[in-house]
Amino acid sequence: MGRQRDNVFIKYYSLIHMKGLAGKIAIVTAASSGIGKGIAKVLVSEGCSVYISSRDENKLRKSAEDIKKETGKDVSTIPCDLSKPDDVKLMLNEVKKKVGKVDFLIINYGDPRVAPFLDITDDDWDSSINMFIKSTVYMTKSVLPDMIAREYGRVVFITSLTTKQPLENFAISASLRAAVVSLSKVLSIEYAQKGITFNSISQGYIMTPRLENIARRNAEKSNISVEQAYEAIKQTIPAKRFGTPEEIGNLVSFLCSSDASYINGTNIQIDGGFVKFPF
Ligand SMILES: NC(=O)c1ccc[n+]([C@@H]2O[C@H](COP(=O)([O-])OP(=O)(O)OC[C@H]3O[C@@H](n4cnc5c(N)ncnc54)[C@H](OP(=O)(O)O)[C@@H]3O)[C@@H](O)[C@H]2O)c1
């Protein structure tokens, strides 16, 4: 029995080492819930030291507790509002002071305002430009010089299906996330010879608190039950199910692994077949 357990452990241990994730330092933003939390959970269970950030310290602490319960591993928390450039700079300074280097920068974002174009205010645009564009630039600029010096790094931007399939009322999401995807491509070309890869992920419907809110809103609007609202969305997905945050985490972990060292500058759909455009 003991030997069997040892063998399982050795197999698991060598798998972790083969992927090259053990001992690496990762930052995951917007990770007190949903997709970011799922990514942090997968990376920490594969041996990374993970720092999670978001605006609400209590939610962050709860996220860290949940991850510990499920994986037995600790993640560190650093509060940061991505729509406030000063906050982002403070967070980066703190990470640098604490850990010195970052191997994996995983930039996930909060939810932008979803509304008809004329209802979106200048303030909505300003805070979203701060969250999607400025924070992306600051965070990438902050970790890049050290990644170049070490000739190693992975940067993954978590965007949305709206980059491939713009939807009505999603003007902010579709336009600003598309800019992130293009920036990722440019960076991948500029630093391809430095051992650093830049990729982005366009996820479809993932079962998170945000999707719960959407289902509740749709249910109210159409006078149907929340279950019926979930079902109506599911029917638009060829897989007829929602994705899980851990499935996004698995893709991020693959992109960070040594197996993915030649994957650079891509935008990967993970959406159960939702986006129909073939290229
Ligand atoms: N779930 C889906 O089906 C789906 C599909 C396509 C795209 N997305 C996008 O994926 C991202 C994550 O969504 P989710 O479904 O995981 O939502 P979620 O469960 O509601 O989580 C959103 C996370 O973002 C954080 N956050 C919000 N505003 C922030 C800000 N200004 N600065 C820093 N952190 C912030 C929240 O934490 P705090 O409240 O603590 O700040 C929370 O951790 C969003 O951009 C969403 O639009 C989701």
Strand and helix layout:
Blueprint: H1 2-19, E1 25-28, H2 34-45, E2 49-52, H3 57-71, E3 76-77, H4 85-99, E4 104-107, H5 122-150, E5 153-158, H6 171-190, E6 196-203, H7 209-222, H8 226-234, H9 245-256, E7 267-270
Parallel strand pairs: 1-2, 1-4, 2-3, 4-5, 5-6, 6-7
Helix pairs in contact: 2-3, 2-9, 4-5, 5-6, 7-8
Could you characterize the architecture of this molecule?
This protein has helices spanning 2-19, 34-45, 57-71, 85-99, 122-150, 171-190, 209-222, 226-234, 245-256; strands spanning 25-28, 49-52, 76-77, 104-107, 153-158, 196-203, 267-270. The chain is an alpha/beta fold. The chain folds into 2 domains: 2-206 and 244-270, Rossmann fold (3-Layer(aba) Sandwich), CATH 3.40.50; 207-242, no CATH class. A 7-stranded parallel sheet has the order 3-2-1-4-5-6-7, sandwiched between helices. Helix 2 (34-45) crosses helix 3, helix 2 (34-45) crosses helix 9 and helix 7 crosses helix 8. The mean pLDDT is 94. It binds NADP nicotinamide-adenine-dinucleotide phosphate (NAP). NADP nicotinamide-adenine-dinucleotide phosphate binds next to helix 2 and helix 7.
Tally of separate domains = 2
Could you name the CATH homologous superfamily of the largest domain? Answer: NAD(P)-binding Rossmann-like Domain
Radius of gyration, in angstroms, nearest whole number: 19 Å
User: What string, H for helix and E for strand, traces the elements in order?
Assistant: HEHEHEHEHEHEHHHE
Strands of the biggest beta sheet: in what spatial order? 3-2-1-4-5-6-7
